[in-house]
Amino acid sequence: MDRKLDADIDSAPLAGLRVAIIGYGNQGRAQALNLRDSGVDVVVGLREASSTRNKTASDGIATAPLIDAVSAADVAMLLAPDETLAAIYREIEPGLKEGCALGFSHGLAIRFGFIVPRSDLSVFMVAPKGPGTALRSLYEVGEGMVALYAVAQDPKGDTEMLALAYGKAIGCGRAGMLASSFAEECEADLFNEQAVVWGAVPEILIAGFDTLVEAGVSEEVAYMECVGELKLLAELIEARGIAGMREAISNTAELGAVMGGRRIVDDVVRSRMSAILEEIRSGQFANALKDEEASGYPLLRESRETARTLRVESGRKRLQD
């Protein structure tokens, strides 16, 4: 896959343009600050009752009412939560000038038809592959975060160049920008969230902790063994790859990994992963997300409350005390 770096990217397509950032959360704040520090004219669109006004003020970022921000913008970057974007787009569409560019950092709203943009709009995605806090901190020390980029509508024939220039301005060209599509980025990201890093891994950590504690191991030791070493694993894989990680650990740990890992992640687990991916591609999860938002997030509220009461949290607190 071709990787575009700063030296390969022309900044000119973004020069002199005004970017309206819609959503000042994790990604919105980081991208707005990075754009500003790269010399881009940036404004954050806020509703009157927005709770982020104090944050934008302390950050020294210009703000404007939502419709005013997009009306004066050449690029409107939608960085609010996925499930809210359809309503936001309906609100701002009358203010988007002819030929404006509409940007995203996740493909879901376009992939699953939450938003069907006007045909005159250039539609692109720049998706940093990490949290906004890291995007900002890397930028501040002269480094960057890998990003995927894609184009969904290209009425003027220049949308890819604009996407690359935008990615360069937020620091992603320093690490590399990889061409993708809204569908590929969205489906792979949702799959990872559900079946791998954010879904499966925490459940394995919890199950391992509970297994040890139920067998008489102290909560502190169980936490250190099953949860505390995760950071070491991630750092080794990032630095050396999975094969290099295996070579860096002891023979005891490596043999145990070979004998134990595939008994946990067996063909049944892989089959379940495939089923999750099919659910994602069918739109089942996207519909569930819309329903969750419409009903006031009952599943998320219940999950967050349950997580606070898990025994593994007690083990973490014991170590911190």
Automatic annotation (TrEMBL):
Q: InterPro entries attached here? A: 6-PGluconate_DH-like_C_sf (IPR008927), KARI (IPR013023), KARI_C (IPR000506), KARI_N (IPR013116), KARI_prok (IPR014359), NAD(P)-bd_dom_sf (IPR036291)
Give its E.C. classification number.
1.1.1.86
- Which pathway is recorded for this entry? Amino-acid biosynthesis; L-isoleucine biosynthesis; L-isoleucine from 2-oxobutanoate: step 2/4; Amino-acid biosynthesis; L-valine biosynthesis; L-valine from pyruvate: step 2/4
Family membership? Belongs to the ketol-acid reductoisomerase family.
UniProt function note: Involved in the biosynthesis of branched-chain amino acids (BCAA). Catalyzes an alkyl-migration followed by a ketol-acid reduction of (S)-2-acetolactate (S2AL) to yield (R)-2,3-dihydroxy-isovalerate. In the isomerase reaction, S2AL is rearranged via a Mg-dependent methyl migration to produce 3-hydroxy-3-methyl-2-ketobutyrate (HMKB). In the reductase reaction, this 2-ketoacid undergoes a metal-dependent reduction by NADPH to yield (R)-2,3-dihydroxy-isovalerate.
What the entry lists under NCBIfam families is as follows: ilvC (TIGR00465), PRK05479.1 (NF004017)
Spell out the protein name for this chain: Ketol-acid reductoisomerase
